[in-house]
Amino acid sequence: MLPLDIYNQLKHKEIIIYDIDNTLIDVSKRYMKSIEESGIDPHTNIRRIPPKERAKFWKIFLSNKYLHLDKPNMGEIENLMKKYNEGYGIILLTGRPETLRKDTIKQLEKFGIKYHALIMRPKNNREPDKYYKTKLIKEMINYGLKIIEYHEDDPATIDVIKKNFPDIKVIKHNLANEKLIFHDD
Questions:
Q1: What would the pLDDT profile of 67-77 be if each residue is shown by its tens digit?
Q2: Nearest by Cα to 93 from 30, 175, 166, 16
Q3: In sequence order, what are the beta bridge partners of 151?
Q4: DSSP string, 3-22
Q5: For FRET with 66, which of 22, 26, 75, 167 sits at 20 to 30 Å CA-CA?
């Protein structure tokens, strides 16, 4: 949920939403290191491993342990910065947990990523991104924000966003599909 002052700041702007991981930031090295530490076969889709092993992976991946391995996706960051400088409202909507807020902000600053709002997953929220992000976009629209574009790497989330918000231009990023096995297509 966005604080009311952010809604007020953005209500007169056209909004562009960006996911972070595998859209603005290449997390492939963090992913592989987390897979390795979890003892998971790197060629197995993360969604097809038993829940206990999957939970171990996510605990490592969604910590700050290997965050330093992430690299900026400079082409997309330049695209975001151009839109930021043109006056669009930029909201980063991520599945990263709120516990990573300080580290995420440092990382975004290090990579030169400017934004108006950063929305992170609340503590103990484990709903799939496709539901979590859809709910937040509905909330933003209900508060009067005009969302015109959405950038995402997860095919399932993309499908749900397109279905629920046909007026929003959805842009798929393939960084994850090229390097990682996060998603089922």
A1: 999 999 999 99
A2: 16
A3: 18, 171
A4: -HHHHHHHTTSEEEEE--BT
A5: 75
User: 89, 51 in Cβ contact below 8 A?
Assistant: no
Residue 16 near residue 90, CB atoms below 8 Å: yes
Mean pLDDT value across residues 138-152: 95
Please report the pLDDT score of residue 173 as a whole number: 84
Provide the β-strand partners of residue 146: 14
Domains of the chain: 4-26+71-179 (3.40.50.1000)
Tell me, what's the pLDDT at 183?
Answer: 47
Question: In angstroms, what CA-CA distances link 149 with 15, 18, 60, 67, 102?
Answer: 7, 9, 31, 27, 26
Signed CA dihedral, 130, 42, 45, 169: sign only:
positive
Answer positive or negative: Cα dihedral of 45, 50, 53, 59: positive
Q: How far apart are the two ends of the chain, measured CA to CA in Å?
A: 29
Q: Which helix (H) or strand (E) holds 175?
A: helix 175-179
Q: Which single residue is written with the structure tokens 């491993």? A: 49
Return mean pLDDT, the chain.
90
Q: Where are the beta strands (DSSP E) in 37-126?
A: 71-72, 89-97, 117-121
Query: Sorting pLDDT into bands at 50, 70 and 90, what band is 182?
Result: low
